[in-house]
Design goal:
By secondary structure, this protein is an alpha/beta fold. It contains seven helices and nine strands; from the N terminus they run βαβαβαβααβαβαβββ. The protein has one domain: Rossmann fold (3-Layer(aba) Sandwich). The model has no long low-confidence stretch (mean pLDDT about 95).
């Protein structure tokens, strides 16, 4: 079973938090999380990373069960195979994709998801799960000069996080050009994709 929960801002609502726990289907005290803050590089982004971690602790997940991966060195499947959730935080999507590739974490994630682990994305982490990250172009700076924008391909839909009315024109233009379905998510929404079946959580 493949399970993805893609969000703009993490466990922003009770419904998203409930869906999160439902998809893991384990007592909270036993849930083990791989926490990936690698996309966050500036003060504001790091503040959101701290909030994300606090949400997990507030949910009742033990601090000792959260393993932080900074993606500053190669990651092997063996070191993370016992975890239940891959939690990928927000920040710069281009930088995130670069780090994920450099460390081999892209292949590790794909293997984990195929093994039934939950992929939980926040903002850039949600974009990363799709077929490509081109949607990040108008919002994130590609200061790492990535040319191959292929995502993890865990789903064939593209998430546009933090959607608000003023972005409608940008997203509409993107929809015309993209061969994939684009799902804009507000800060209070999430997209749950279980075995390819997608539904929006509000």
């Amino acid at each position: 079973m493949t399970k993805l929960l893609l969000t703009s801002t993490g466990l922003a609502s009770k419904n998203i938090a409930n869906q999160f726990l439902q998809l893991i289907d384990k007592p909270v005290s036993q849930i083990k999380i791989i926490f990936v803050p690698a996309a966050a590089r500036n003060e504001e982004e790091l503040k959101y990373v701290d909030e994300s971690k606090k949400e997990l602790l507030d949910l009742g997940i033990f601090k000792k069960n959260i393993k932080t991966l900074s993606l500053d060195k190669p990651v092997s499947f063996k070191e993370v195979e016992d975890f239940d959730v891959i939690y990928v935080c927000g920040g710069n999507t281009f930088y995130l994709l670069k780090k994920v590739r450099e460390t081999g974490f892209d292949q590790v994630v794909i293997k984990l998801v195929r093994a039934g682990k939950l992929y939980f994305g926040v903002s850039a982490g949600s974009i990363l799960a799709g077929p490509n990250i081109e949607i990040a172009g108008p919002f994130d700076e590609n200061d790492v000069n990535l040319t191959d924008l292929t995502g993890l391909n865990l789903t064939n839909v593209i998430i546009s996080p933090h959607y608000c009315k003023k972005e409608k024109l940008i997203i509409d233009e993107f929809k015309k050009k993209s061969q994939y379905k684009i799902i804009p998510l507000t800060n209070n929404q999430a997209l749950s994709v279980v075995n390819g079946k997608a539904k929006i959580i509000e």
